[in-house]
Amino acid sequence: xxxxxxxxxxxxxxxxxxxxxxxxxxxxxxxxxxxxxxxxxxxxxxxxxxxxxxxxxxxxxxxxxxxxxxxxxxxxxxxxxxxxxxxxxxxxxxxxxxxxxxxxxxxxxxxxxxxxxxxxxxxxxxxxxxxxxxxxxxxxxxxxxxxxxxxxxxxxxxxxxxxxxxxxxxxxxxxxxxxxxxxxxxxxxxxxxxxxxxxxxxxxxxxxxxxxxxxxxxxxxxxxxxxxxxxxxxxxxxxxxxxxxxxxxxxxxxxxxxxxxxxxxxxxxxxxxxxxxxxxxxxxxxxxxxxxxxxxxxxxxxxxxxxxxxxxxxxxxxxxxxxxxxxxxxxxxxxxxxxxxxxxxxxxxxxxxxxxxxxxxxxxxxxxxxxxxxxxxxxxxxxxxxxxxxxxxxxxxxxxxxxxxxxxxxxxxxxxxxxxxx
Amino acid sequence: xxxxxxxxxxxxxxxxxxxxxxxxxxxxxxxxxxxxxxxxxxxxxxxxxxxxxxxxxxxxxxxxxxxxxxxxxxxxxxxxxxxxxxxxxxxxxxxxxxxxxxxxxxxxxxxxxxxxxxxxxxxxxxxxxxxxxxxxxxxxxxxxxxxxxxxxxxxxxxxxxxxxxxxxxxxxxxxxxxxxxxxxxxxxxxxxxxxxxxxxxxxxxxxxxxxxxxxxxxxxxxxxxxxxxxxxxxxxxxxxxxxxxxxxxxxxxxxxxxxxxxxxxxxxxxxxxxxxxxxxxxxxxxxxxxxxxxxxxxxxxxxxxxxxxxxxxxxxxxxxxxxxxxxxxxxxxxxxxxxxxxxxxxxxxx
Lengths: 422, 350
Description:
- The complex is a heterodimer of chains A (about 425) and B (about 350).
- With about 425 residues, chain A is of the alpha/beta class.
- Chain A contains 13 helices and 13 strands.
- In chain A, helix 4 links the parallel strand 3 and strand 4.
């Protein structure tokens, strides 16, 4: 009798499983037919004057997409096909490249730098073609349109560092005195605008603002002026090469050590230590929105494996992490868009597909953890910064380390200040 | 112009015509048909590249009038283009001046600035003049970067799309038509200027200014006129560039761009109207090619150190200039003339 019950149960279960299979398969990720892919455009300054950042970033993008396709099965069940182009850090090329992405039916595009996105955003905003910039400045999305920032902007760096300084480093009385040394482009001006908007609220005094070019070879003259103003902090928002020159000059003038030096995330990379020398940058602080190499986060092992296998020279470079994380975010956006809009809408790669990716992909991001490589990614209406979290690092013994906790950067509505963009 | 065997002109007007045979007319109409139907079969990318080529042709035509015809070396052409671009940005973007008026003002403004920096040409020439025009590049860009209340400074400035009588040239295809019409008009202007009295005076100044003066040519007038006309065209190119790109800052107008323009004119064939056109097309297409080749090479030769393609663009550009200077110093235009001659005589090319 019990055997009969057992057989009946097995048969019933088998029939039930067979009957439910279409339901199960409908719930699983859609099966892509041959040739069905999701296209993405990615541009990086892999050659030209910003190649020290752009080349590892292109590698990070490439390797990240390889990992997504090979090990995660693509995005939402569809392979991600990338059109990856080198901008040479040339704005005229960027303007044509973004149009190529549109022609190729890409669903969104990415840039490495704020300069590239500045050149691409007019065409992209006109057409409603969504773009994500790894590094960004407030001018890209204040007011917000179709351009998004992967990381907190250069203004957020400045405010995060200023807050950290006041809470953890400053021991004096009254207002700490900040001297700013800024790259003469959106990288520097993002920080300038942040101090301009929030210095009083933060309780700091900006005693001088100096600018430098990306090609600067000496800042002795400007630093001599700064030294005369007796600042407590020298804040530098620039790329690694000029930052290294400024810090070396500050050492030569005996301005540093003796004051605190803080950097924005564009300058805080391994290249800064290599260019300036470990002893010159010992104790320098900086904001950076990514984890360090070797940290115990879920995505570190795979990223390290791919980096060491495909681009071992990039190991230790934090820009690689940023663009690897960018690839993961792109895949998450596509996954959400497939789920919410369906592949057929996206397959056209037209204005309707771009709108679907933006409204049903990017704007549906909610606490995506990016495998722990950066702060959680969420969209908040009116705020096109996808991540609002930064960490403050310090260089010790030639290594960038000692990270702080994640610091959330509040939204600053720059467009409400009459001087913004003027 | 060489004419096919058996073709004769019976009056002066026909002898001076740009298009003189039925074949010329047929080829010209075919060219027009091809160019003006391009938006039907090209995507935004290739239309964008075509727009960039058209704008660059206008700028290169101006430089060619100055350097190729009049022999006045200018290494600050990108600076003069910037003057035109920012004039349009300010007039059309901030003051609401109609686009066509802004376009004209851009040309005139760039021409006037060119006149100022062309004044030393009355006294100096050759390398010395080159240095004074480099100064123009640096001074103009410095002003653009630091007069931020007007120019937007380092951050940049937004420029509204061109519009004429309610017709807004916002899409890539509509911009293409605007730019191609302007390019065609500028080519016609440059061609006519070069083969007229002014052009002959330019050539006389270029070949031997002392002899030209002895013959009664006013050196100061013609040298300054060359600067004005060359920079006027640069200003027109800048104005179109500004409305095409929509957002710009000084990084769009670098010294490297100024040198690139000279390279384009040399490669195409200095002192001919066709030369700059061919030079611009070749260099701009090469630049686009490099965008694709660079990542491909990095991927194909992954055993080589990462970043080995850095600088491939300048290397290719330098190599092309060297090869042209050695193998075809008269540029692509001369090669085109040789090809046409060989084609006409084929198969009896003795």
